């Protein structure tokens, strides 16, 4: 999956030592905000000191981030993990702040609705041309006709 936007927050790096292997690890999280009409924010993580140095994400940069989403359960609750595996800096942003791909989307053309015929009325309370104009609401012309099936 991919997301394009501007880095609006760089969270502190975290590190430690693996309990299984004893190797040192380092991880850092970043917040990216999209250029959509209603901007969305997403936090993603880069794991590994070598990847952090290679990607070198800075505050205020406009990026396209490729990532994987995974979930894990802890104490009966589920948590998402958004892990970046590639960062592209070749994202064109026009002067209006919209990315090029989103700016090229055109609205659908309006479709004209056909006009309803003036001679026929459809709906509740509309008189039809079938001869029911002389019937009242209580069961016919004389009021004594019961047309119910039971």
What does this structure look like?
This protein is mainly beta and 150 residues long. The protein has a domain at 2-92: Nucleic acid-binding proteins (OB fold (Dihydrolipoamide Acetyltransferase, E2P), Beta Barrel). The protein has helices at residues 49-55, 100-103; strands at residues 2-10, 14-17, 24-33, 41-47, 62-74, 77-88. Strands 1, 2, 3, 4, 5 and 6 form a six-stranded antiparallel β-sheet that branches. The longest helix is centred in the middle third of the chain and has 7 residues, at 49-55. The two termini are 63 Å apart. The model is unreliable at 101-106 (pLDDT under 50).
Mean pLDDT: 79
Distance between the termini: 63 Å
CATH homolog superfamily of the domain at 2-92: Nucleic acid-binding proteins
Shape: elongated
Per CATH, which architecture of the domain at 2-92? Beta Barrel
> From the alpha-carbon coordinates, what is the Rg to the nearest angstrom?
32 Å
The arrangement of helices and strands along the chain is EEEEHEEH
Largest sheet: 6 strands, antiparallel
**Share in helix:** under 10%
Beta-strand segment tally: 6
Level-1 CATH class name of the domain at 2-92: Mainly Beta
The share of residues in extended strands comes to: 35-45%
CATH topology of the domain at 2-92: OB fold (Dihydrolipoamide Acetyltransferase, E2P)
In the predicted model, the low-confidence regions spanning at least 5 consecutive residues are 101-106
Number of helices: 2
Q: Which class best fits the helix and strand makeup?
A: mainly beta
């Amino acid at each position: 999956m991919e997301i394009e936007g501007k880095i609006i927050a760089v969270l502190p790096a975290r590190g430690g030592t693996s309990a299984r292997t004893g190797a040192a690890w380092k991880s850092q999280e970043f917040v990216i905000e999209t250029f959509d009409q209603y901007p969305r924010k997403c936090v993603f993580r880069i794991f590994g000191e070598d990847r952090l140095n290679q990607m070198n994400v800075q505050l205020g940069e406009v990026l396209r981030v490729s990532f994987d989403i995974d979930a894990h359960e802890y104490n009966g609750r589920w948590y998402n993990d958004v892990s970046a595996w590639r960062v592209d800096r070749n994202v064109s942003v026009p002067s209006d702040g919209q990315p090029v791909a989103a700016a090229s989307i055109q609205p659908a053309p309006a479709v004209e609705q056909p006009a309803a015929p003036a001679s026929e009325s459809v709906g509740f309370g509309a008189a039809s041309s079938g001869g029911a104009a002389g019937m009242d609401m209580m069961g016919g012309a004389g009021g004594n006709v019961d047309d119910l099936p039971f």
